[in-house]
Amino acid sequence: MSTAAHSGLAGGGAGLRIDTRVIGTIALWVVTFLGGFVLREPAPYELVMVVVLSGWLLSGPRFSPAVGPLLLVIVLFICGGLMATLMSDDFGEAIMYIAVTGFLALTAVFFAAVTASDPTRLATIANAYTASAVIVALLGIGGYFGVLPGSLFTLYGRAKGTFQDPNVFGPFLVLPWAIALHAVLTRPLKRSLIAIAVLAVLSFGILLSFSRAAWGLAAFSGAGLYVILFSMTQDRGERSRLILFGIAGALALLAMIAIALSVDSISGMLLQRAKLVQDYDTARLGRFARYSLGFQMVLDNPFGLGPLQFRNFFPEDEHNTYLKAFTTYGWLGGVAYLSLVVFTAIRLFPLIFQRRPWTWAAQCVFVVLLGHMLMSAIIDTDRWRHLYLLYGLAWGLIACEYAWRSSAGRRLSTAGARVSHQR
Questions:
Q1: pTM for this model (two decimals)
Q2: Close Cβ partners of 285 (under 8 Å, ≥ 6 residues apart)
Q3: What is the pLDDT of residues 43-93, one digit of tens each?
Q4: CB-based contacts of 256: which residues, under 8 Å, 6+ apart?
Q5: Pairwise CA distance, residues 281 & 213, whole Å
Q6: Most Cβ neighbours (<10 Å): which of 23, 65, 81, 220?
């Protein structure tokens, strides 16, 4: 992602000049696009990201001071995890686990730095992510209805696309879903036809994931975006338009659910998964019981239990990212992770009401990331690739605002000096 203007390659008597920014943009598009294809690990995303990160680091990247807090909490988080490996019964496995987390954390720093250095890259990331999500959703839908090999794109009667778990597939689709929804709500209808088509495909994909977390995340993100846009609009005509779109959206959602319920293969699973609390949540050592017992164990283990050790005490993993932050990364890692969550939300929130070229991205990232933060209380999200992308985008946006205000401050100082000189 070097910011050098050009590099020259001599060929015969003529010189071929290649814009390194174009190469950087292509690399960013490809690595973002590959984030949706994780049938096996290591996935193509990791392999390409290693190359992209290497090139980026060798290019001598510049870091905005605003990204400093992200880097600090990530270092503390990983340090906590490294100390927790001493508690593990398999040191090699534990080190590998923390190494993977460290790699994913570095991708957050990468996305923050590249967007902070050039906010126009937000559009590149959004386009690549949307293209990936549409393809992944179509594969999941095709697999669910038997058009494509269902064993590859479904799991337990649920669409999973090119992911290993439907509970990751569904939430992965929500950020581009929110971006498409934002476009529909803010653009003229004629310019929103592609966004409407994207919204329809992703909505059906989220539905067929039968993930309660994905359903809740989409509902939260959609409602949050609608409230933000409505509150920022003072024009009566625009507010009337938003009200009509809200009614149309609600009717479209009801129609999609009604059609889904009329299909026997969907209705049974839909009614089963629509229950807010499942049997395995309230069992003797179910999800909720593990939360209480797990936090009690954390109090007695300041260095944590070690990576992948929670399952030695309970039938399943934590299914709570905040609990997992303490059991897997110790008190240091747990506090660092909580600090990342709280500080990111506090710093990003004011940006959604600013009038900036990247406000659309700030609004979409905020509602989806906040939804992930809430969702993390009932599901393990600490290894989700797209969550680190969200954190990176959040801090990239925070850095963009920092640069914007700094440049505005310099302009005001210069203007003040000129006025003072004239006086």
A1: 0.90
A2: 293, 314, 315
A3: 999 999 999 999 998 888 888 899 999 999 999 999 999 999 999 988 999
A4: 203, 204, 207
A5: 14
A6: 81
